[in-house]
Design goal:
The protein has 15 helices and 24 strands. The termini are far apart. The chain has two domains: about 270 residues, Aldehyde Dehydrogenase, Chain A, domain 1 (3-Layer(aba) Sandwich); about 180 residues, Aldehyde Dehydrogenase, Chain A, domain 2, CATH 3.40.309.10. The strands form seven sheets. Strands 15-18-19-14-13-21-22 form a seven-stranded mixed sheet, sandwiched between helices. The protein is of the alpha/beta class and about 500 residues long.
């Protein structure tokens, strides 16, 4: 079986007939043979979306939402099947695979509920016998470009708000997880999405993604990926004044103060730094630790890290799965070597695991550095793997300064039992998400998700804020006075 594109309500091969393989990063298993698309397939998909838009935008939003409710129910009924596929195709351990799918279910149910709201506003008009209100209008054709690390959850963050708001979509998933994208579109097709409203084009970002970004009939691009790639998307899109929503990198930090519950902090660090093998945009890759507890925290972390078991995520004994592919493995290890060269102290890990349960996949041992200078590459650049840098500070003010001195601004956390410290951190940390006495991961679908500085371009996903990406504001005035009223000019008459 070849996993195909979905264009205009039909499953079709790529025009060229070319294919590629999706590989299990834990053991090299071929998950599926997939259509490899090019610009001609993109053109077909965009044209189908453009044709479908005039009728889809006129479907009442509650009716559009009913399709999403059905899709969420189907996803729920197939949760275990989808979760197993997440682990096989992306590599994360099975409990995290289930979390990925559950987040997609939650987002789909939540967004479907917005179909009966899509809130605008009414406001008193300044002239008599006049009514004023604002409503949301769909934008048009949306290009949804998604990464491999959350292959169910992140697509739902984009597809569901776009669809419930009345847009049509061309969905381009990451080349590392195309089969999961195929399954998600199958579910929406089964739920009753009309032909052309949602289209799927499978293939490499350099070909398919670029063609989508530059296509004149794409009105909005919603992109999640690296900051470098996001900058390229923004530059290309600006030439045609397209709307762009970018969710990009992170260099997230956990602050541990001298009054922290260290056991709780260790739990939060292990989960945030090594969960999903560090392959989250919200993963903690910096530990900003008060010097009074640095040694004790390091000792506790070394013990816990040393006990983490690497292997296939389908095994109950596995704590840390593989990284997604060989190039990512090389990148991660290159940063480890750079950290050593720069003079950081390697406390544990630091090597590629290629023996035993790791022999057939792409595994890197969980790594912890100490004596890291905040300006080192490992403390500034996004690694996207299980590598953590410990930075010592002497005060909360210094911790916040180090935390904020990053080109990224997605997620931060602080462990402290001092309520004054907690509220100062919440006020002064300049990231889009802040946790108190928890790790840097765990966002919920009903709150805005996104960051500052190089993490994004000011938009937010999830929550009601997602609708601001996928809608235009329209202000409406109804004058029932029976005469021409000239707004501010007639206010004094």
């Amino acid at each position: 079986m070849v996993f195909k594109n979905y264009i205009g309500g039909k499953w079709v091969d790529s025009k060229s007939g070319a294919t590629f393989e999706s590989i299990n990063p834990a053991n090299g298993e071929v998950i599926g043979v997939v259509s490899k698309s090019d610009a001609t397939d993109v053109d077909d998909a965009v044209e189908a979306a453009a044709r479908a838009f005039p009728s889809w935008r006129k479907v009442p939003a509650p009716r559009r939402a009913e399709i999403l409710f059905r899709a969420a129910q189907i996803m729920l009924s197939r949760k275990e099947e989808l979760s197993l596929l997440v682990t096989r195709e992306m590599g994360k351990v099975i409990k995290e695979g289930r979390g990925d799918v559950q987040e997609g279910i939650d987002m789909t149910f939540y967004t479907a509920g917005e179909g009966r709201r899509l809130l605008g506003s009414t406001t008193p008009a300044e002239l008599p016998n006049k009514f004023a209100m604002s409503v949301r209008d769909p934008i048009g054709v949306v290009a949804a470009i998604t990464p491999w690390n959350f292959p169910i959850a992140i697509p739902t963050w984009k597809l569901m708000p776009a669809l419930v708001a009345g847009n049509t979509v061309v969905f381009k998933p990451a080349s590392d997880t195309p089969v999961l994208a195929h399954k998600l579109v199958e579910i929406l097709e089964e739920a009753g999405i009309p032909g052309g409203v949602l289209n799927l084009v499978l293939g490499p970002g350099g070909t398919v993604g670029d063609a989508l970004v530059s296509h004149p009939k794409v009105d909005l691009i919603s992109f999640t990926g690296s900051t470098a790639a996001g900058k390229g998307v923004a530059q290309k899109a600006s030439e045609q004044l397209k709307r762009v929503s970018l969710e990009m990198g992170g260099k997230n930090a956990i602050i541990v103060m001298d009054d922290a519950d260290l056991e709780l902090a260790v739990d939060g660090i292990i989960w945030s730094a090594y969960g999903t093998t560090g392959q989250r945009c919200t993963a903690a890759s910096r530990l900003i630790v008060h010097e009074a507890v640095r040694k004790e925290l390091a000792d506790r972390l070394i013990n816990r890290i040393g006990a983490l078991r690497l292997g296939d995520g389908l095994l109950d004994t596995t704590d840390v799965g593989p990284v997604v592919n060989a190039s990512q493995l090389d990148k991660i290890h290159g940063y480890v070597e750079a950290g050593i060269k720069e003079g950081a102290n390697l406390l544990i890990g630091g090597t590629i695991c290629d023996e035993g349960d790791c022999a057939k996949g792409f595994f890197h041992k969980p790594t912890l550095f100490d004596n890291v200078n905040p300006n080192m590459r490992i403390a500034q650049e996004e690694i996207f793997g299980p590598v953590v840098s410990m930075i010592a500070v002497s005060s909360l003010d210094q911790a916040i300064e180090v935390n904020n001195a990053s080109r990224y601004g997605l997620s931060s956390s602080i462990f402290t039992r001092d309520i004054n410290n907690a509220f100062r951190a919440m006020r002064d940390i300049t990231t889009g998400i802040v946790y108190v006495n928890a790790g840097t991961i765990g966002a919920e679908v009903h709150l805005p998700f996104g960051g500052t500085r190089g993490t994004g371009n000011g938009h937010r996903e999830a929550g009601q804020a997602a609708l601001d990406i996928f809608t235009e504001w329209k202000s409406l005035y109804v004058d029932f006075s029976g005469r021409l009223q000239r707004a501010q000019i007639d206010l004094d008459s």
